[in-house]
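REQUEST ID: PR-0412
SUBMITTED BY: lab tech R.K.
PRIORITY: routine
TASK: structure prediction, single protein chain
INPUT:
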Amino acid sequence: MAGVERIDGGPRSVIVVGAGIVGLSTAWFLQERGVDVTVLDRKGVAAGSSWGNAGWIAPGLAIPLNEPSVLRYGVKSLFNPKAPLHIPVKVDPALWAFLTRFAANCHWGSWTRAVRTNLPLNEESIEAYDVLTANGVAATTNPAPITAGFTSPRAATGLLRELRRMAEAGQQVPHAAVERDQLRELVPLTSDALTAGVRIDEQRFVDPGTFVHALADSVTARGGAIRIAEVTDVDATPSGVTVHARGGQTFRADAAVVATGAWLSRLAAEWGVRVPVRAGRGYSFTVPVDGEVPGPIYLPEVRVACTPYQGALRVAGTMEFRGPDEKFVPARLEAIIASTKPLLKGVRWEERTDEWVGPRPVTPDGRPLIGATRLPNLYVAGGHGMWGLAQGPATGRLLAEQITTGKQPAALIDCDPLR
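STATUS: complete
OUTPUT:
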């Protein structure tokens, strides 16, 4: 647990459960510290949110979800199935307990604490990616501003106000307001409906599936193993851990990290992790376009993110509170198209491919869960919400430090899973 001194310099072997960006980053940085790693995942590499997300490495837009305005918006969305934030009206005591805790955190004090908690992860975000790509991860990150488009200058004031609040809480985000003509230059796909914008500088984007697979390849090239196994339980003692998988398989190591995204609470609730993680499901698809896409496009009024992707455009949006394994809901994707279509031109919506839904792991207080559980040699990493891709490598680096030294980094104090 946090603060425990390691007599022998830390564990020599670690099992990481979860082959997404967070789990694989943790495995990679553990290898940097001389640890043998085995990664387990029930489906394989990038099988969850790490594949179909917008691909933004955007620390400047890692704005916590628990703003007071989101609470008001969420109440309205209960009666609008097409709303970007969708909460199904159904009997689900665990969901409503989570939403009650979330609502209790929708005030500026909790929001500001979440910004400050995430600040070290955001500050190290791009640097941690550079460490990976400079040391064997054969994938690229693409520097580009993210341009937010709005239907009026007045509509842009909401994002500008958020960015000012971020700065007041300690995170400076380089940005500039842009007028209609500048917006057209930055985003050639802009329709006449968009008349103002905000350019967020010093951000990057990636092809997320390609990057996570390259990270997995680097882990295996350096001697790590990646296995398909659905983990059902973990036994942890001072002498080591035993990970149990469906079908009777067992895996043993000195320590274990569970980084299973939206499924984290299914295991971690038994280990003293009282902060729940729920699936905030996002949808995405890919569409061909007739114009140039120089960089990512953000449409805050409809809560949609668009990114250059393999010669086309990936469109991602919505926040849907359903179970992580529930079926794809076509109406959610149609709602994204209906809201976005008037704002962009030259997009061939009918030719879309790669329709996808994935569960983003959301906590009620806007802070991730990174660190030791109450069981010895057992750690968790997750709950990053929409920003797991951006914060995953920084999370892995900090957690690897804690695991190998037995000392909780100052940057992870407010991410403590036992809070």
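NOTES: Residues 108-134 form the longest helix (27 residues).
REVIEWED BY: pending
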